[in-house]
Design a protein that fits this description.
This protein has about 650 residues and is α/β, with parallel strands linked by helices. It has three domains: about 280 residues, Rossmann fold; about 80 residues, Luciferase, Domain 3 (Luciferase, domain 3); about 170 residues, 2-Layer Sandwich (GMP Synthetase, Chain A, domain 3), CATH 3.30.300.30. It is built from 23 helices and 28 strands. Strand 10, helix 11 and strand 11 form a beta-alpha-beta unit. Helix 2 packs across helix 5, helix 3 crosses helix 8 and helix 14 crosses helix 16.
């Protein structure tokens, strides 16, 4: 065996794993893409052929070892192939969030010193071209979808197909080039640079090695007994570590199929058609599904609605115990079986969840009520804990011990501890990142000399070793009466209600808790239609007395629950207002992964926060908004401020 063959046989990089998969399971489906309503399949041998052509074509364009290549677009097989094609040359892929505005992209492209960008379509091409003058390192753009680009004549533009054709010619003229380049790669080399969502400032480039991703993939695949027979639907941003672990690292490790939806608008339809066995979604996706489900039930006839509510109550009583194979009475099992026949089975089938063996949620805490709801239907939903800096691999819940209020014990190969002074969670993981790109100071602040990573999360361990995340450490505070203030916990409890889309809780160093509310326009609009309430816009609907009454009842229901909690009974919500606009990533109020940027909210809406802690019952507001086409406008409104009923703390028996 030659040196090149020996190196490739080590399987310590993803291009090497690709060669292995093509050799050992070449005729198995690796990718599917839905085009014009029809699923198109590519097996592992076809993937290797396409990656070889693309890699050699990029080499012909001038891509060399150490270069950075951006990947921008929706989930497409052709864009996933960019990763091994670039890595085969010793270059480094840098995926960007496809919905980023041009200025956000400019920061990452400039900071990462990107030389080439591979983009999906005309929209992404235009965005990158609009900022090229400020990017001296950027030399070329490769576009995958040629629609709308026929008359673009710039020499730095190249079609994906043309680059592959160039690559096939280059491959023929340079025998062994592709394999020789791959053989030079090692496990400790940089695999990818993923940029954080930037909740507190500019995004940081997280440098991750092949070993980080490969070992995390192998350990998690082994823990869950994943095989080449799994099917996943890949619809989450390719720039997010969650998608990179599930749709790339684990897919190459286990050899299972990655399926790309036709568009972001058809994800739910494609999910139902595909019926994946392995599914991953952030809490917001599960919350939106639940909201839509509740809306449909409100529109259903009274017989169907009563049947649904009756059997959902049965599921809440016994569903989780049946899923976890715990004792349940024969009568309880019979009622659940009827519910599965008439309600749970059809419901899971409608959602596309019928074949799911394992479902994960991660990226943000999920409200325990939402979590229990899905598990009660028989969905094996579990919480995963990790960060970009850990390759999303720190804690995993075992099938036999899933709890709504913990993220499980440390995953195989991981160590987790709680700082005695700050209460911050620290970990050491096979996925622990190499460094922050061009930011030694931030690296030293986050990663200790002993390899412990500071998460920024506050947490505690249960007596039997499960990790419970309370909130972001910097966000956890106390009210003036010394009651613990954990905003995410309160926000997630409120987001269980279908009428509430987003919440920002306030209370640190205050006398009580107050909240900003974003209504869910679809859910509240549907409710308004059923109740004969007309409206002209989000702002108009959000400011209606009837809507305030609806939201107030939801908040008071949460307050009643909080009264039962000895630690949090003092953090009941006293006052609230409904914001005049939806919090938006384009306005900088949310990250691209829909996390609240609390500092920006505090700065931008400081006057509203102070009004919540005054005796005012309304406040005039004027705000700048960014529309989908990039235009900006101003919204003016007179916002109401309402008080909520609070409840005396209730002592639980025992």
């Amino acid at each position: 065996m030659s040196d090149v063959q020996q190196s490739i046989a080590r399987h310590d990089t993803f291009p090497k794993l690709l060669i292995r998969n093509a050799q050992t399971r070449g005729d198995r489906t690796a990718y599917r893409e839905k085009i014009f309503g029809i699923w198109q399949a590519f097996d592992w041998s076809q993937v290797l052929d396409n990656v070889r052509a693309l890699s050699c074509g990029l080499a012909a364009l001038g891509v060399k070892r150490g270069d950075k290549v951006a990947v921008i677009g929706d989930n497409r097989p052709q864009l996933y192939w960019v990763f091994p094609a670039v890595q085969a040359l010793g270059a480094i892929p840098v995926p960007l969030y496809q919905d980023s505005v041009a200025d956000e992209m400019k920061y990452v492209l400039e900071h990462a010193e990107v030389r080439f960008a591979v983009v999906e379509n005309q929209e992404q091409t235009d965005k990158v071209m609009s900022i090229m003058e400020g990017l001296p390192a950027l030399e070329g753009i490769v576009y995958e979808d040629e629609r709308g680009l026929r008359n673009y004549s710039e020499e730095f533009l190249h079609s994906y197909d043309a680059v592959q054709e160039k690559g096939r010619a280059y491959d023929s003229a340079n025998a062994g080039f592709f394999e020789n380049e791959i053989a030079q790669g090692k496990g400790e080399d940089v695999s990818v640079i993923l940029y954080t969502s930037g909740t507190t400032g500019n995004p940081k480039g997280v440098v991750i090695s092949f070993d980080n991703l490969r070992e995390s993939g192998e350990l998690s695949v082994g823990f869950e007994n994943l095989t080449e027979k799994e099917e996943v639907l890949s619809y989450l941003p390719m720039a997010w570590i969650g998608d990179h672990l599930f749709s790339y690292a684990q897919a190459y490790t286990a050899g299972y199929a990655v399926n790309c939806p036709e568009s972001s608008d058809t994800v739910l339809t494609d999910l139902r058609e595909l019926g994946p066995t392995y599914y991953f979604a952030p809490p917001a996706v599960f919350e939106n599904m639940l909201t839509n489900m509740q809306i449909r039930m409100e529109d259903a006839g009274w017989i169907k609605r009563n049947l649904f509510n009756t059997f959902i109550d049965v599921a809440k009583d016994v569903g989780v115990n049946i899923l976890e194979r715990k004792p349940v009475s024969i009568f309880g099992r019979m009622k659940y079986w009827l519910g599965k026949l008439f309600i749970y089975g059809p419901l899971l089938n409608t959602l596309g969840f019928s074949r799911i063996r394992i479902a994960y949620t991660a990226g943000a805490p999920m409200g325990p009520d939402v979590f229990r709801f899905y598990r009660s239907l028989g969905l094996n939903l579990k919480q995963l804990y990790g960060q970009t800096e850990s390759c999303a691999y720190v804690c995993i819940q075992a099938d036999s011990d899933v709890r709504p209020d913990t993220v499980g014990p440390p995953a195989p190969g991981c160590e987790v501890k709680i700082d005695d002074v700050s209460g911050e969670v620290l970990y050491r993981s096979p996925g622990s990142f190499v460094s922050y790109y061009k930011n030694e100071e931030a690296t030293a602040e986050t990663k200790t000399a002993e390899g412990w990573i500071h998460t920024g999360d506050a947490g505690i361990f249960t007596d039997d070793g499960h990790l419970k995340i309370i909130d972001r450490a910097k966000d956890v505070g106390k009210l003036n009466n010394n009651t613990l203030f954990a905003p995410q916990y309160l926000e997630n409890k409120l987001k269980f209600f279908p009428f509430i889309k987003e919440v920002v809780a306030h209370g640190n160093a205050r006398d009580h808790v107050a909240a900003f509310i974003n209504i869910d326009l679809e859910a509240v609009g549907n409710w308004a239609e059923r109740n004969g309430l007309s409206y002209t816009s989000y702002t108009d609907l959000a400011n209606r007395e009837e809507v305030y009454g609806l939201i107030q009842s939801n908040i008071e229901s949460v307050n009643q629950d909080l009264a039962m909690d000895s630690e949090l009974s003092g953090s009941q919500i006293r006052r609230f207002l409904i914001l005049h606009k939806e919090l938006d990533a384009d306005d900088g109020e949310l990250t691209r992964t829909r996390k609240v940027r609390r500092r920006i909210i505090a700065d931008r809406y400081g006057e509203l926060i102070e009004a919540l802690y005054s005796d005012k019952d309304h406040i005039d507001v004027e705000a700048k908004v960014t529309f989908e086409d990039g235009r900006t406008g101003v919204i003016k409104a007179d916002l109401k401020i309402r008080d909520c009923k609070t409840f005396e703390p209730m002592r639980q028996a025992g």
